[in-house]
# Entry
Amino acid sequence: MPHIPTDSDVYEVFAQSGHGTALSHVGSIVSPRPDAAWHLAKETYGRRDDLVKLWVVRRTDMIVSSAGDRDLLAAKTRMPYRQPGFPTARRRDRSAAPPAVAAPPERRDSGLTERRDDAREPRLTDLWLALADDLFVLGNRLGERIVDYIDLEEALAVGSIGQEALAHAGTILVLCGFDQPAVDARFFDRAQAQWQVSRVVERLTDWPSLVAGGLVIAAAVAVLAERTAEAEPGAEWLSAISAIRDEQLVHLDHWRRWARALAAWPETRTEFARAYAEVTECAGDMFGARPQSQGQGVPAAAPPAGPALAVTLHERLAVLVGDNGGPGSRLPDGPRTRTWGVGGSALADSLSRGRAIRDHYAPGVFS
Amino acid sequence: MNADQLADVVAGVSDPEIDVGLRDLGVLRSVSLTDGRIRVHLTPTRLSCPAVGEIARRVRAALAEAAPGHGIEVVWERGAWQPAAVTAAGRDALRRGGYRVAGTAPRCPYCDSEDVEQAGRFGGAVCKVPYDCRGCGSTFDVIGTAGCNAMLPTPVRGGSR
Amino acid sequence: MPMATAAGHRCYELWDPMPDEVREGARRFAAVQALNELVGVLQYVEWLDRAPSHTRRQMLMAKIQDEVGHGHVVARVAEDLGMPREQILLDYLEGRTRIHNIFHYSFATWEEVGPGLLLTNSAAITQFQSLAKGVYLPYARALRKVEREESFHYQHALDLTHEILTHGDAEQRRRVQEGFELWLPRILAYLGPPDTDTLHTNRMWQVGLKPDGNDEVRQAWLNKIIPVVRKLGLHVDPALVRQAPSGEWEFEMPDWAQVKKVIANGGPSSQRRLDWVRNALDRNAPYRRALQGVA
# Structure
């Protein structure tokens, strides 16, 4: 009868590696027997000479906190961590309540100047968080295209761009003060009603639309990065923002090549012109994020993201999106606001598949 | 151990994919030691480097073994890596592994031929660009050109640059 | 430049005159490897959007990308030897080439992915280390680099397996154990039928492209992987694999007729793989033409 590891076969290992230092948790191991566990721990986590103490404790014998206790443990002592100067949002872990504005009745084409339910104007942070959502979905859609075999080089292109879209989405959250569990909670545990993706996202299905969508998202991220870098030239986070901008410009260049090719080729011309028109028509909301979190102070140097900023960013986007050597853009004349809960089946499928495994594990396993 | 000695320990940690130390690869930025706490500043070659977790694990393990009993903090400086930060020894190690570093005209790492062709704009990893040597028929990668140092940002109306 | 292998065979660069058997053999090895890198990742792509954390998803996507990158490398090697890269997938669809037995299966659970990846990766590394001693140098160099890059995915597979074994519940750990027991025999079969007695009549061995026999590679792999698996906390059932007093590994011999059937597209996911590749090529044909037509 083979021995299948059970809960009581998991041991937590604590080691003290020098006099005057604390005994600390160094890892976990699986072992069928307690005596074997101690020896395995010694072999795995320490050379004999270095260790002063080695404690090996059966996991089932310990009283441990769960992810649900995060707030309880953190409530009085933890201050939100900030990258100095970067417009910061509060970390939100998976136990956080949905924002008060979740899933309001949909209103189309509400301009930024219109009076909204939201108590305040969106800030740069809100614009970044919304673009991070777009990048996350885009990255996932591109990952699947690695095996579309358009050709070998394109497989590597979509894989690289997809990986960087995911990484940029994560980097943006980290710059906004999220730690890793909070990043996961935001991308995996929010209901669709709590997402504020662009309307472009629901169109990321066929290849011509992915080309058009990739193009407008890359252009929007590059524009926002440029603007953010202008806001505080000496900031500590500048190198990260510049790297995001530079990498997105490479993506933009890639999608522009595709746009030119699909627009010039007789067989794909009509299909691409339609996709490009539809996607750019949806892209008016790139900088139309609504406020995402309440009660955070804006660092003095970060410019307010009022209607004027959205207009400026939108104009810059229009230049990049219009000037591609391909078909005409239908980008609206002015910026449009985003709506909670859009994203269509592209987002819905992505979310439900993302939870398929995660939901079957205890909270915190994958953090 | 002082900070310099600790930095040497981190320098001796190998990249998970290529036999090259972190200092030689330009990934190690600095090491400081304050009140018994070691702070290691590293920079990934690309923002989306998938090896950051494994590199941090190795750095912690190496420091815990060399200087037991210290708190260890690994700080990733995003976007700070430059091809120019690769040392001469690093370039040698990379060449032996079949890689060249961006910044000069690429030559084949195996036969040193200048008769090389870029084999695509993106490689198997985000930090690599594929090349073919027409001299000896070998394939190799150039590290660090996928960024757009060589590319001009598209003119932006009203932009400050 | 080494002009001869350790076994005494003469080595060849791309432009060297070489026996047709060496050229064709190297081309076939590289093309078959390219096919397997390209189609083999479908197994993992199926789990990409279910990967349960941001980091895990990035790692998995990087792994898939890297394998396709390796496909790109060896396809270029094959191309230099006269095999157009477009031909690689067409040969597969038209039944002229086959993918390895392991790629005719899918993972049924997330828990199976870790041990499956670990065993597959370590076996591939061992095999590439062997083939890298071959006489066609551009392929040998590519393999050394590929093998080194694979070791990073091997670390990922260890981490993935360890995560579930130490943090999953009893049921999840049970599935990891089952995954190991399911994939071990498949990998034993992947390394090929016993050939110790016949190796010296194998032309690829004679010309120096296949430096080691299947049995040798299999033993080298078991030597490395079984201690690792044990250290992870998995049980290694002696009925599956055990070490004789001589140090030699013994194992339950795969049913080679069955393995052959699987490889001939008779495995549980064989049709799914073929359909995927055919549909992807068809669906994207106009875009491929646009890219080529305008470039």
